[in-house]
What we know:
This protein is of the alpha/beta class. The chain has helices at residues 5-15, 28-34, 53-61, 77-89, 103-111, 123-137, 148-164, 179-191, 207-214, 241-248, 257-269, 281-287, 309-316, and strands spanning 24-26, 38-42, 70-73, 93-97, 115-118, 140-141, 170-174, 196-202, 251-255, 298-302, 321-323, 326-328. It folds into two domains: 5-46 and 148-321, Rossmann fold (3-Layer(aba) Sandwich), CATH 3.40.50; 52-141, Rossmann fold.
Amino acid sequence: MTFSVSDIVRARQVLRSKADATPLVPSPYMSRVCGQDFWLKLENMQPIGAFKLRGAMNAVANLPSDTKGVTCCSTGNHGRGVAYAAAKRGMRAVICMSNMVPQAKVDGIKALGAEVAIVGSSQDDALVEAQRLVADEGLVEISPFDDPYVIAGQGTIGLEVLEARPDLETLLVPLSGGGLAAGVAVAAKALNPNVRVIGITMDRGAAMHASIAAGHPVEVEEVASLADSLGGGIGMDNKLSFALCRDYLDATVLVSEEEIRDAMQVLFFEDRLVAEGGSVVGLAAMLAGKLPKPQGSVATIITGRNLDMAIFAKLVSGQDIQIGDLTLKGKSYGA
Length: 335
Ligand SMILES: *Cc1c(COP(=O)(O)O)cnc(C)c1O
C-alpha cells in the first residue's frame, strides 16, 4: 500500500468547510514552561468534539453510492466520526465498541442516529463483530487508523499546523493506532523536512510504542486509562499506520496516569480548556520533563473533548478517581 502527501492534499479538498480549519492558539503558560512559543491545535472544537471526523468523513466520502452501510470498531471518537459522516450521506452505520468505552461516548454516537453494538472488553472483541457485519450484512468496515483515506483525513491537521507555523520545531502528537501520527507526520515533513514529530501515549498498554521497539506489530494487554481514546492494539496484520509511524516519527514517549491528570488540570486552569485524557499527552510529556528542551516553537494537537464530566469535575477538584482497577489519587491544582 502506498501513501504520500498527495493523498492528504486530496483529502483536504473533500473536507473543505466540513471538518477543517480549527484554531491554532498560543498557550502562554506552556510557553513559559518550555521557554518557546507553545501552540494548541484545537481539534476538540470539531462538530463531534474530536479530530476523528476528518478521517471518517474522507473515508465515507470516497465510498461508492450503492454502499449498503458502514461499520467500525472504535474506542468512541472514531465511531462518532463515522456515525456523523454516514448520517450526512444518508448511510446506515453500525458502531462496534467494547464495554471499556465510556457511556458519554456511547450516548454521543446514538444521538447521531447510528446503531451501537457493545461486545466484549477489548477493541479486538469489537473488531470481530465489525468483521461479522461485513461478512453477513455487506457493510463496509472503516478502520479507525489503518486505512489510507482515514490517515489522509487526519493528515490534513499537519498541513494546517505547518502552513500556519512553517518554522515549527516540534509537533507533539497523541498516539494510539497511529493514523493521526502517520498522516500528520507525512504532511508536516512534506512542508518542513526539519520539523520533529513525536508520538506520545500512555504507559498503560502502548501498542505502537512497543511495536516500533520490536520492529513488528505486537500485542499489548488493554487496560483502563484516563486516556481511554488511546487504548487498543494496532492490529497484527497492520498494513499502513505501523510502517508510516516507524518511518516518520522521530520518537515515541510514554506518560503516566498521574502525568495525564496533571496536564488535564493545567489545560483547564491555565488555558480554560476541557479536554479528554488522550488529548493532553503532549502537554503531559513536556510538563514532566520527558522531552528535550525545545530550541524553537512547539505545537500539540488537543485531539478531543469527549469525556465524562462527572469524572472531570472530580479530577479538577482534586478528588480521587477510579480508572478500572486503578485508584488515581486526587491532587489539588497548584498544591
Ligand atoms: C483516536 C484518538 C487519538 C489517537 O489517534 P490514532 O490515529 O489512533 O493514533 C488521540 N486522541 C483522541 C481524542 C482520539 O480519539
